[in-house]
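Components:
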Amino acid sequence: QSALTQPASVSGSAGQSITISCSGTTGDVGRYNYVSWYQQHPGKAPRLIIYDVNNRPSGVSSRFSGTKSGNAASLTITGLQAEDEADYYCSSYTGDITRLYVFGTGTQVAVL
Amino acid sequence: EVHLVESGGTLVKPGGSLRVSCATSTFLFSNFYINWVRQAPGKGLEWVGLVKTTFHGGTTEYAAPVKGRFTISRDFSKDTVYLDMSNVKTEDTAVYYCVTEKSGTFDNWGQGTLVTVSS
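Structure:
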């Protein structure tokens, strides 16, 4: 079972909106709503920004939102800011005990 | 604020063994599954394994690439989770993160500890 597929990079100008896709299968993203998103700045640990497809933890900006349709999920960042420049990873529960969780390939976001 | 502090990462030869630790709190032991997630240099995240809460039996699950070589355990007296790594391979080189997980969400991450497997 391979990683979830994300675009390698996405860029946008400050103030614009961008969307990062996360493509899975009927065995992970398509079957469970345990889809989450993580932001990782260089040299830092990942940080949870979206859980259960479209929920934000306390303290995470409302500029981050998530959706899911079929076997694919997406993360949208509105009003892009310089501090949003980071790597983003999606994750899904799979129910497969040999690989309970699968992460996406990661997307590098650049703010132009 | 939840704190997880990993330690023990070092250089180890292929085929060798290593223990990395994750210092947490009694609260975390009781309420969260503790997972290990690794990240090879310049690469993405990979789930390694988990230990469940006592309420859920305290059992462990492992990813296929490490099953039979890695063991996760807990020391309640020290509020610490261990990842024992044996017969390590060069592809095990990574930053290892200790992470709390509840209902499919990795909500709190430690700062990570680097394990390098090289001769």
